[in-house]
Write a structure and sequence with these properties.
Layout: E1 2-14, E2 17-19, E3 25-29, H1 30-35, E4 43-48, E5 54-62, E6 69-72, E7 84-94, H2 95-100, E8 104-106
Parallel strand pairs: 1-8, 2-6, 3-5
Antiparallel strand pairs: 1-7, 3-6, 4-5, 4-7
């Protein structure tokens, strides 16, 4: 049996940009991508702490050390600059593997830098 479990979480990241005219995705500082064990094009769930919006998109690498968190495309209507969000990815795995799996959870500062 396979179950879905939390794989990676970036808790309370700050929206720095939004681009309605881009094709879609979330652009994330590559330092955060690496630290969270995310991959470019990986599906992620976005939970907007500020306004309660929830949506899915995929990851695009942002400039390293930039602190960028940009929501792109139609989802840009669901955020405002300075909103606090949670970025989450899940993984499907066998029940026994899931029992011992430890997710990566990051708590960046207000500038999206690792503490």
């Amino acid at each position: 049996m396979f179950i879905e479990v939390l794989k990676s979480k970036i808790h309370r990241a700050t929206i720095t940009e939004s681009d309605l005219n881009y094709i879609g995705s979330i652009t994330i500082d590559e330092d955060l991508i690496d630290a969270a064990n995310l991959l470019e094009n990986e599906k992620v769930h976005i939970y907007n702490i500020t306004n309660g919006e929830r949506f899915e998109t995929y990851v695009i690498n942002g400039e390293r050390e930039s602190g960028i968190i940009s929501i792109n495309g139609a989802a840009a209507r669901k955020v405002a600059i300075e909103d606090k969000i949670i970025i989450v990815s899940y993984a499907s795995m066998e029940l026994e593997e899931a029992r011992h799996f430890k997710p990566i959870i990051l708590f960046p500062d207000g500038n999206n830098k690792l503490k």
